Amino acid sequence: MPELPEVETIRRDLTPLLVGRRITHVAIQPGGERLAITHSPWALEAALTGRRIEGLERHGKYLVARLDDGRAWVLHLRMTGSLVHVPTEAPAGRYERARVDLDDGTSLRFNDLRKFGTWHLVEDPADAMPHTGPDALGPAFTTAWLRAQLARRSVPVKSALLDQHIAAGVGNIYADEACFRARIDPRTPANTLGPRRVARLHDAVVAALEASLADRGSSFSDYRDGLGGEGMHHVRVRVFRRTDLPCYDCGTAIQRVRIAGRSTHYCPRCQKT
Ligand SMILES: [Zn+2]
User: Fold this and answer.
1) What is the pTM of this model?
2) Could you tell me the distance, in angstroms and rounded to a whole number, from the CA of residue 52 to the centre of ligand 1?
């Protein structure tokens, strides 16, 4: 699933291509109807057509296109969604669920193998993202915020990092990477971390996300950037999906456990409970 660095890479790629453009035609393809959450597919097509895109923002894993009628078109890629900018005449891909044609002869295609992606059209973007807290690279995600949130939870720290209310945009890859960078065993109960370890974890979350962003994200499976290319960070992760491979820091084999139903990777020597 695309996480914060991947969605932010898409946002940066698409911003100069979309902002200022007017939407001339929208087609949600047969099989893509579940995209439309707030409207029927045809009502959403009609509502988007003719609108000008005035800005492209991101919060956590959500993309927010600001429209000239004051509304926000909020997109979530979920498991396998991608957004790729192509010429209007480009043929539809096998998993294309929707196309949005623009007034400059280009087109935005929403591809989604698993069909879990969502589009909302709302007055207030917050209405499209319930249970979502501060963006993990935004100013409200502070050490003090993280400390207060972890203190209230006895779940493993890995589970807490996946909670979008605590750190919007962090998913399975960067939760594992952050725990490794902070030298914290991902099974550690969140409310047992002292202030210094929480501060280290906060900085590790930010560092893990920024390192990936610098590499244009990680392409472990379906992720593609806004131009259809792959990110580079999957070759630079330290623990994620490195089960049985040697830790770069100490040589110990990376272990895999399941936490909250998610595969979790850690170094049993570098990371402590
Ligand atoms: Zn190690």
Assistant:
1) 0.95
2) 51
